[in-house]
Specification:
Elements (H helix, E strand, L loop, with lengths): L1 H26 L1 E5 L14 E5 L9 E5 L13 E5 L6 E6 L4 E6 L5 E4 L2 E5 L3
Antiparallel strand pairs: 1-2, 3-4, 5-6, 6-7, 7-8
């Protein structure tokens, strides 16, 4: 019985520590590697980046997302992209044309640019 207690005094803290680490990595914090030069000069190729999963996404935030089924070139389910947010869901843009000024509204729900009530082109948001 004494040896069981001494073994458990080592095993239990190790198991609890591993469980806590797995929960933190899954829900709160993880590391990813930047692949390619698309984020230079801020992030270099092969640089490791810490990702806080609970952070609020804002304009110009750097985000990490799973690219599988988003990009046709991403053939693996583990491909992650590191990109900068330049637009948010419902942004008003002023588009100047030669004769008049139009208002375009980008919406995540419609996934299109609408100008003067007409659907002009599809965009991916």
């Amino acid at each position: 019985m004494k040896t069981f207690k001494s073994i458990m005094s080592w095993v239990l803290p190790i198991v609890v520590g591993l469980l806590v680490a797995m929960v933190i990595r899954h829900f709160i914090f993880t590391m990813v590697r930047v692949d390619g030069p698309s984020m230079e000069p801020n992030l270099d190729d092969n640089e490791r980046v810490a990702v806080v999963k609970t952070a609020k996404i804002q304009h110009l935030s750097v985000i990490v997302f799973n690219a599988y089924q988003v990009d046709p070139d991403a053939r693996s389910k583990t491909v992650k992209y590191v990109k900068r947010v330049i637009g948010m869901p419902v942004i008003q843009l002023n588009l100047k044309t030669a004769d008049s000024m139009s208002m375009a509204s980008l919406s995540r729900r419609s996934s299109s640019v609408s100008m003067s009530g007409r659907r002009e082109r599809q965009i991916g948001i």
